[in-house]
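This is your field. Please look over both lines of this record.
***
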Amino acid sequence: MTALTPESEIGRKLAASKILAVLVLDDIESAVPVAEALLSGGVDAMELTLRTPAALSAARKIRENCPDMTVGIGTILTPEQAAEAKDAGAHFGVSPGINPEVMQKAEDIALPFGPGVMTPTDIDRAIREGARLLKFFPAGSSGGLPHLKNIAAPFAHLGLGFIPLGGVNVQNLATYLESDLVTAVGGSWLAPRDAINNRDWNQIEANALEATKIVSN
């Protein structure tokens, strides 16, 4: 099985990183500079969302030029996108929800994959597909850590891990990471779209440094 699990190679990398930078890139030229800024700030894992046409080409450039960065592709909604993510060299893929066809394609092509969950039914379906490291999305608007604790409770004996995204920020980062349920946290506050488009690499590095300082305390 190549579905993401806490003990898989990518699962261990994400657990070590603790922070997953979620990026929306509008141009390929920003790919390497933003990855370098994050790495300089201590963040070595990212998710490039398929919300713009630049994401896959950006993943290729980052893989070629920033070997220390763990690169994931997010917002994978179709089996074809899963294949494209694999071809772009993505270390892993994630989706906002659960699509069995996408997860089967990821299995067929050996792309480590984590689906998004928000309910106990979602978790149950994800487990049936072999995944045990799950994207908790949208974390903030669904009730945050209290909601995650409630929906995860019936499955506590299965050793699941969760990556909250959506509403995670520098103010609540430490609270999420204090939970044994949370393997890592993800968010776009590290490299906001406007900061990327403004080429404000210093601000992105500063955001990453602030986050990693919180993680290390």
Remarks:
- Residues 9-216 form a domain with the TIM Barrel fold (CATH 3.20.20.70).
- The two ends are 35 Å apart (CA to CA).
- The chain is about 40% helix and 15% strand.
